[in-house]
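#onboarding

Welcome to the new folks! Below is a worked example of what a typical request in this channel looks like: someone posts a single protein sequence, and someone else replies with the predicted structure as tokens. Don't worry about understanding the tokens yet, we'll cover that in week two.

Example request:
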Amino acid sequence: MESKAMRVALRIWVVLVLAFLFVPIVLIVLYAFNSSNIESWPIAGFSLHWFSVAWHDPQVRSAFLLSVRVALIATVLALLLGSAVAYALFKFAFFGREAISLLLVLPLALPGIITGIALNSFFSFAGIQLGTATIVIGHTTFCIVLVYNNLIARLRRTPGSLAEASMDLGARGWQTLRYIMLPLSATALVSGALLAFGLSFDEVIVTVFTAGAQNTLPLWIFGAIRLGQQLPEVNAVVSIVILLTIVPVVLAARLAGAGAITRSAAVVGEP
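Example response:
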């Protein structure tokens, strides 16, 4: 058994690690409400002034709208492609299925700079001009992984007898998919889409190599920090990015946790 001193030391270590990770984020959010343009402690006063400045900044608004548009399109594409591959790999057994699964997960396992350089080289070789379309393609490559992983994990926990019973009753493949498989995996699809949106919205590294002259919100933040100007406005923008990233992740976690039990009970008719 662990000694009392060991348990105390482990708890202190966990607190220190969490503080190292989250205290800087908390400070950024606090400074976003600072009424002064000088980052000093204690904060001179609380104000929404810098959020107003960021909202009325045309560069920030343009970058924000582009980030949202790219994230939405990439999420839709990842949802369509990731779910199609997940259903196919779950339903059919063929040579090379595990290799395809590995290739799908690879973009998320590789460092972002590798994926970004590879995509940039491909676009240059194909003569494709960098812009919104190339950003969407770059984001879709790793967003597919999130949808695929969520859905394939849910499908593997789904009783195969439900689909077999549907087919025994005369249902066709599309009917089984619509009335059995989709209701069972709906929360996995939604949580995967939410995670994909959150990851796409704050992606920086891949965007650097695929954006060209386009300026997404993370790129605007990176440029403003590098120049050392507009730091109070940057804090406000970063706070918005944090919020728009955390909310989808929290919703996805809640859906993934309780959704499978609820859907399964509804389909099989349990109370």
